[in-house]
Every structure is written in C-alpha cells, then in structure tokens.
Amino acid sequence: MDDRLHDNWTTQLRKGLLEMCILNAIKPGRAYGYEIVRRLRQIEGLVIGEGTIYPILSRFHREGLVETHLEESSAGPARKYYELTDRGKKLLKKMSATWETIVRGVRNL
Amino acid sequence: MQYEEPARKMLDAYLQKVKVYVSAAKMTDPEEVIQGVTEHIESELADVAQPIAAADLEEVLTRLGKPETWVNEDDITWWRKFLSRLRGGPENWRLAYITAGLVFLGILVWFGFSVFTIPDTRDYLQLRAPKFLPGMTENDYWKDLGRYNETMRNNNLMQYDAYRNAAIQRHSEYEEYGFAFFIFCLLMSFLTAQASLSAAGDSTLIPAGQKWLTYPSLLMVYLPVAVGFLIWPAAVGGGIADGLEHHGYVKMFGHTYTLFGLEGRKYNDWVLFILAACIAGPIFGIWFITLGIAGLFRRTRNGFAAVFHPFLNPDKRWISLILLILGVVFFALGCGLIFITDLGMKIVQ
Q1: Is the pLDDT confidence value at B243 over 70?
Q2: B179-183, B244-248, B328-332: least confidently modelled range
Q3: Long-range interactions of A66-71: CB distance < 8 A, separation 24+
Q4: Which of A100, B231, B296, B324 is deepest in the core (most CB within 10 A)?
Q5: CB B279 within 8 A of CB B335
Q6: Per the CB < 8 Å rule, is A75 touching B43?
Q7: Do A54 and B27 make contact, defined as CB atoms within 8 angstroms?
Q8: pTM over 0.80
Q9: CA of A91 to nearest chain B CA: how many angstroms apart?
C-alpha cells in the first residue's frame, strides 16, 4: 500500500519536474535531443524512460517555447537543435521562481 | 546505419509503436518525435560495430522506455485515446471498450425493432419487423405491401386478416430474437467486464472512465441476481399462500380478517396477502440471519464478495451485521404475525 502511494507520488512529481528540467537543460544554449537526454541523466531518478523527452520537446516546439533548426553533424546525419524562445525563457523564469518558493516553503516546515 | 535483420525488424516495430502512441497526443508532431528518437538511437549506437545486433539495439530501446508511457493522459484527445487503447491496449481499456460495445449492440438490436421499422401509418404495415434482421428483406417488404394492396382491392378481409396475423406472429418472433441477442451480448459483456477489471489490477485504482464502460454491464447482471438472491422468500411465501388458497384454507382466517379491520374489502386478496407475509416473514428472517452469521464469522474471503466483485467489499462486515439485525426483525415480525392470526390461535389452543 505504502509502496503504491510512494510510486504514484514519485510519478506525479517526476512528471511535473521533467518539463522544467528540459527547459533548464536547453537554457545554457542550443542543444540537440540526445544531448538534452544526457544532461538530464545526471539527475538521478528523474527520467525513467528517456523517450519521454521527445514528445515534450515536440509539444514545446508547437507551443512556441523552443525553436529548432537542423545542422549538419560530422558524427552522422543532420541534427535537430533546440533553443529557448523568449516565451520559453519567460516561462522557465516563472517555473523556477515557483519551484524555489515551494522548496523554501517545504524546507521551512 | 546498418542493422542485422532481427534488429531492423525490432526497430521498425518500435518506431511504428512510437507513431501510434504519439499520434494520439494533441500538441505533438509524430514525425518530429520519430526523428528525435531515431537520432537518439543512432547516437547511442555510434560506437557499436555494424551491422547492429538485436541485443545492442534492445538495450537502447529499453532505456528509451515503452512509447505508451510517453504521453500524458491529459494530452490525448478522447477519440484518439479510444482508438489507441482499442488498437494497442492496455488490455483493461481494450476490454472495457469491448464491454461497452457489446452492451450497446445488444440494446441497439433489441430496441431496434421500434427504431428501425420503415415508417408507415397503416396498421398492417406498422407490425412489420425491421429490415436488417434475418428473415425480412426489402423484397419481403414490397411483397407484403403488394399482398396488402391486393387484399384491399379485392375486399378480401379474411385473407387480409390471415396476412395480418402472420405479420403479428413474425413481429413477435423477431422481438424474441432481439431479446435473446441482447441477453447473449449482456452475458458476453459481463465476462469481458470482469476480465477488464482483473487486468486493471487493484480495484481501488480502476480509472473512472473504465468504471463507466464496465459497470453498466455488471449492474445489469448483478441487480436481478442480487434482488432474486435476497427476496426469494417473498416468492416462496406467495407461492405457499396461493397453494393454501387453492385448497380452501384461506376461508379459515375469518378472525384475521376482522382483526386487521378489513371488512368491506375483498376477503381472499387481503387474507392471502397476510398469509403470504406470515409465511415469508420467518423464512426471510432465517435466511438473513444465516447470511449475516456467515458473513460475520467467516474466516476466508467472503464468497458473496467474490461473486459480486467489485461492488461488495469483503472487508465491510457491517453489511453482515445489518443483514443479521434485519433477519431478527423479520423473524420476530413474521412469528408475531402468525400468533395473532387464526393460525396462531389454533397453535395456542
């Protein structure tokens, strides 16, 4: 019973955090999909199925939070690079502020 | 990138699955996702010797995860959700849709008799069965109409009546087919509903949508069974009272008749009712007490809870307690009723 509750809670938390973390992973500059996955791998337990990231990136693209452009790669076929738009940057700023407030609040409990 | 044949097949199947599941999401471009996933796989396997073996590819696909878990439920349109679940599962949802479909089909065919008949105001033709059922074709319809016109033209009312009666009989036969088909669909849907709930696992975690799809079928089967299970003593009481009336014993209840102030009312009906209550009361009492005690003192999983899954929670023993209390009340009332009637007076004497 407790395991089930914990699993549900972890899944919900992960879902909520993943979008903010993807935006954060693109924030330093442009990045291609696999590069974003590698950056997110560093956060233990955040990404269970790495494929989850690609539908989110596609949605961000449609929603105008990121823009994309193809670039030739020396390692193989052309890569699709993602970069935050102004809208994406603003949203990330808001998300980060909310996150900070929550973390601070939880720590002060 | 070169793949061995099994690896190529595995990759194609995986990307096809990605397409199916990602297509269901509202704001996602499946081609963009497939491109991203393909790039990801190629980047992961860049250092692996070609042609790529299935085992190497499988390792990467495992890390990517199951495509069915990639998209949030909230991001999927309802009709895409429906199609994708019907096509690719999960099994509990696929079975839930089949359940609802069977119930809908059964009701449609059953009630279709009135909905799908060809509109016509003439009495004879109103009795026709619908076109889409066996035995009635478009040709039959026109043949019937021709016969009707012919009989009316010849003013042959006897022949008209014969056709009319034949039409009535055929219509009632079709109605029976329709009902039998509905019952068949209902029983099949009951099985798929149970399978759907089992596939969902923990009954406390069944999604609301799945409940809406499966519960109507379960309730349509459970309610008549549960009602019959609980009120059979009433039928027994009524049957015995009816038998006593048949043998003339009801006449012996003159005291009861006056006791309940029933003068001026139809003697047999009222005495028969009281007699049925006298007999059914104690049987109800004993039956409910038995059920209550069995439920309260059981040591294993309650059989009734298993039969009426998921509506009867085996942990709720208060249901058994209520049955026990009701049983005692019914038994006392039934016995009390017996003793104030002529029957009780005879026993006391």
Answers
A1: yes
A2: B244-248
A3: A66/A26
A4: B324
A5: no
A6: yes
A7: no
A8: no
A9: 18
